[in-house]
Design a protein that fits this description.
Blueprint (H helix, E strand, L loop, with lengths): L1 H7 L13 H15 L7 H12 L4
Helix pairs in contact: 2-3
Length: about 60
Amino acid sequence: MDKDVNNEKKTVRDKVIHLPGYDAKIAEIAYYKAEKRGFAPGHELEDWHIAQQEFLGFE
């Protein structure tokens, strides 16, 4: 029984969908966000996160 339960467990990694060009498109969106801010340092992760959300249609 434990064997069946372990086989049914899925990790987050198993559920990730990989899209061709995903990182490149996120980087492009994040770049334009940084450009609007005048490339002020310290917002790189925020830009990336917001770009991901926009790309995936959550914003």
